[in-house]
Amino acid sequence: MKIAILGTGAGARQHATRLSTLGHEVIVGTRVPEATLARTEPDMMGTEPFAAYLSTRPGLALTTFAEAAEAGEMVINGIDGANAVTALSALPASALAGKTLIDYSVPYVYQQPGDAEHPWPTPWGEMPRLDPVDTDSLAERIQRALPSTNVVKTFVTQEQETVVNPSEFADGDHTMFLAGDHDDAKSAARRLLNAYGWNDLVDLGPLAAARALEMYAHFHTAVGLALGGRFGVKIVRGGSLR
Amino acid sequence: MKIAILGTGAGARQHATRLSTLGHEVIVGTRVPEATLARTEPDMMGTEPFAAYLSTRPGLALTTFAEAAEAGEMVINGIDGANAVTALSALPASALAGKTLIDYSVPYVYQQPGDAEHPWPTPWGEMPRLDPVDTDSLAERIQRALPSTNVVKTFVTQEQETVVNPSEFADGDHTMFLAGDHDDAKSAARRLLNAYGWNDLVDLGPLAAARALEMYAHFHTAVGLALGGRFGVKIVRGGSLR
Question: What's the complex ipTM?
């Protein structure tokens, strides 16, 4: 399948590498490909320049957001949460209409150090606040901005390194979640998750449940800081389930 | 140990019953004991009148919030989130000073049906919004209101029925979380959790991590609705942990 990945960060690269390995044709989209390829220093997260990443993966292509989305039969949104709605809304309508868009972005608001109203870092780590939060979600905003696209929220409860390789923990016996208003799109997302190695999927229902998944970000960070490393979450079903 | 439980709802009763079984002296506090005992109908959650509950448990005592807190060596806050800070702040300073206060309340704001700004129920269930959320937590508000008390946030990621009996799922092999700024109080909470049957505890660090635990409420609800019943969450440690 032709799969477009929008974004060139570390998470997006995890999907690009893994999907290529699984035999998919991967097209990576970025705002300005020339600018992305011109960077020669690691980014603020310490991720190597994209050109260096791309140079060892001849099967991958880098182009604009619009061309990547246009080419993809399915699209994965790895654009950062603060810019996702604006960037996706700017695409030609044909690029995303009728397609499954898998969104894993978190709507972090990165404050500056010294912001008195929202101290950064917070007491339990470098945790930005979320916007939207609680009564709306970034996934719903994207869906409202792209009414002809079928948005699925998933991947968001894990580092993308774990998302594409769940078997690194407990033989992969932990749980991934998804939410969306379009059953066909969720089925497509499930097939992708199964291919990554996920066997325990919990469908949380409509896209409004993306609020729960995005708000889970702080919990994930807090547990990661407490354990000092990565981890999985397994939903343990009880005998009293109906 | 003398343990005070503030609140008479279904969750508070789970703790009262279980702690009595474990041999503790339990004192339940309510705003106006006479009013609590006068109720003869189930509450809006379908919970039986407290007098009926109490009549079959002769070891339990019901008194005011103030007298219960005064008598308790440890205090569990089961007052609903919307009223907890006000009710706790109204207690005499001596009632809670120097004591461990375990807080499991969720700061739900119960909208009325038809509230246009915050529809209720939300699309994934009867889920009220949270206040505070994201950049503050109810537990921190309680701690700020009671600076001489040692607040621990825990229990909040589970129904209290599961909190007091974790072994109903997977032989109890799932995870409970706690957060707080006072190590002695967290040790006391850990002993209580161990007595309930919890063996896998993750200390999320300072009380600010209560934000993560309170925001987890929507995730818990969404998963519960998806599964159609109760469940546990197990943190699966990875081999790549430091």
Answer: 0.93
